Amino acid sequence: MMKAEEFALTKGRKAVFKAKKSGSIDVAEGTRSLREYMSLPPSEYSVLDADKVTRLDVNLFKCELGSLNFLGTRVAPVLTAEVNVKPNGEGTMIKVVDAEVLGEGLAERANSMFMVVSENDVGWIDLEDGMKQMNSDTYVEVHLNVPGWFPFSVAATEKTGNLVMSTVINQVVPRFLDQLKSDYLRWAEGDDSRSATSSGLFDVSQEENGEDIPTSETPDDIEPKASSQEAVSAPK
Q1: Partner residues linked to 85 by β-bridges
Q2: pLDDT digit string (tens) for 105-163?
Q3: pTM of the predicted structure, to 2 decimals
Q4: DSSP codes of every residue in 43-109
Q5: H or E element: which one contains 116?
Q6: Could you give the angle at the alpha carbon of 48 between the alpha carbons of 46 and 51, nearest 5°?
């Protein structure tokens, strides 16, 4: 992934994908309070999904998303997330600090062409009936430097990117809250093992939106052919 300063210096066509999702889940407070749980240092966090999330450092985690279809290319994003605890047990802020794309062809070239801005603001509130409510506000923004040899227009690329991003967070955020609730309830009753008991956190299905995702070139999506100079520099 490019840094913001590097990306700002790049020339050429640029596409931006954006998506956001807010979610909440009610939970009955256990023997240990939700505020105590939200005050735990990242070093005591469960990774929630041991198959897809790996601890890299005290507050750094690697998150592996499943394979996604992007304009006919299979890509597998891998995110590095930094977790910071808010004061007074108010929640946590999860921020993407690095990312890469695994795959072949276009996916291999993409790592030097994009940057990600993403945050997941996790918190909680008291409800009138004595219950608690966990909340998650997630925002994802991907900036892509679209090379001259790329066959799709910026508009088509952004349309597809927005759809893919929305599909991902619309499925992941509710699942994240379900797993967070389950982890809290185990911890609240005295389970300090912090072992992950869930799976499938980042398993994303695109079937319901598949017909809207371009998988091959259509006349409206194709950019005009690159100039001879661009064609010479295009990757083979």
Answers
A1: 92
A2: 777 778 888 999 999 999 999 999 999 999 999 999 999 998 887 888 999 999 999 99
A3: 0.84
A4: GG---SBTTTEEE-SSSEEEEEPPPEEETTEEEEEEEEEEEEEPGGG-EEEEEEEEEEEEESTHHHH
A5: strand 114-126
A6: 115
